[in-house]
Structure formats: C-alpha cells, structure tokens
Amino acid sequence: MSQVYKAVYFSHSSLWEAKKGGRPSYAWSSLNKLAGFWKRIQRGFSKVVDSQTLAQFCTLCYIFWEARNALIFHRAAPRLELLLAREASLLVPPATRPPMTSTWSPPGTDIIKMNFDASWRNNAASGYACVGRNTEGEIMAAATAPLMADFSPLLAEASAFKWSIGLAMDLGFWRVCMETDCLSLYQAWHKKEVGCSYLFLILTDCRLLAPGFAYFDVSFVKRSGNKVADYLGRHSEAFGQTVWIEEVPHKG
User: Fold this and answer.
1) How many domains does the chain have?
2) Crossing angle for the helix pair 51-74 and 80-91, nearest 10 degrees?
3) Residue 101 included in any domain
4) Nearest in space to 182 (alpha carbons), one of 199, 204, 201, 205
5) Could you tell me if 53 and 123 lie in one domain?
6) Is 111 helix (H, G, I), strand (E, B) or coil?
7) Are the C-beta atoms of 155 and 199 separated by less than 8 Å?
8) What span, in angstroms and rounded, lies between the C-alpha atoms of 202 and 64?
9) Per-residue pLDDT tens over the stretch 88-130
10) 203/146 same-domain check
11) pTM for the complete prediction?
12) Domain containing 64: what range?
C-alpha cells in the first residue's frame, strides 16, 4: 500500500513534502494531516535541530509504526536492512531521469569516457565489452571478456560496470566517465539505495572503487550511442579476454 501512495501522491518528492491532491482517499487524507504536524514540530524545534535531522527522526517514527503494524497484523518480524532501505526510499527523491541521448558525445577535457556493455546470446549472458575514448573521440583502449556466470540482464550489466572500473584502473585512466545504455543500472547507481540483493552488493563494490579516481561520473546513452561496445560484446566469445590499445578489432 505504501508503494501505491508513493506512486499516486508523492512520486517525485518525499512523504513529508506530499500534497493532499484532488479527491484523495480517506486513508491518504488522514496520513496527509501529518504534514501539518510536521510543520508544527519544525517550527518548535528549528532552533534545536536542523530540518534534515528532524525529517530523518519523523521518517524513522513512521517506519517503526509500519514495522509495528506488520508485526502485529501479519506476524512479520522487522529486519534492520529492510527498515534502512525503507528510510532511504522515503527520504531520497527518485533519481532524475537522464536525457535520452541517442549518439555518443565526447567527455570533458582530460576525461576518458568508458562505454561498456554486457552481451546476451540465446537468452544467456555471453560477455563484457568496454571502449575508452578521449575528448577528441580517439580510441584509447578497448577490451572484451567472456562471461561464464548465469546472470540476469541487469546483473550482467552491473558486473560489466564493475569489470570496466577495474579495467580503467589497470590502464591508468584516473579521470573517467562510465557510460551505459542500461537505464535501470543508471537509475540504481544514482538512487544510492541500501539493500542486500546481489545488484546492491555489486554497486557497493563499485562505490568503494570510485573514490580512487581523480574524477568519476556515470552517464546514460541509448543503445544507438553505444554501438562499438555492443558490437564487441556480441563477439566477446570469439575475441576472448583481450585488450586493445588505441585500436579496436575490425569487422570480419
């Protein structure tokens, strides 16, 4: 039910910034009265704590109330990691949808753009590919690697992301922009949610590696702007684990 409320009433804001809206349900009208309560608390405690701390406190109270109801009515024992993930989803606004860029664009000065992709063949992941280009569009390096694990499409893209970060480090590219054509991966990265799934574990590893760069960013481009990495990924089984410096293999 909480997901329905978020989708209908505050899909682009937090719970505490939600408006009552037109023709709200009785349940939502009651919940929305928390906004007035929130404002009174904020006025009273504004000189004691900052608004962010207060928002976190009120959100935790709401989450504990949800957990209490789940325990009493559904016999569902609360789990700390799920409570923290719930807090993050309420406090952090959804990631901004990226511009739908259809063509490859050059990175900034002294930055290497690493376009990566995970390829699928016969409904199974087959390999990774990555292409690094400078601000002039010149290819600085390219690489492929076969993928032996049985991953879902999103996990394969996340694994390719982590592999490409390691590749950039090995090549000595310390100012990079990692670019993907997987919108779900891009949004998962920028939401910075907490979780225990394999996807979140992979992204956590990537977040630990990112501070090792002098510059690190993640961007999105449509598949039409990621053609080179897509081609290399589809032929990664034939190329094997290979790295090309300042070139890519020609179509044969």
Assistant:
1) 2
2) 130
3) no
4) 199
5) no
6) coil
7) yes
8) 29
9) 656 555 445 566 667 889 998 899 999 999 987 655 557 889 9
10) yes
11) 0.60
12) 2-91
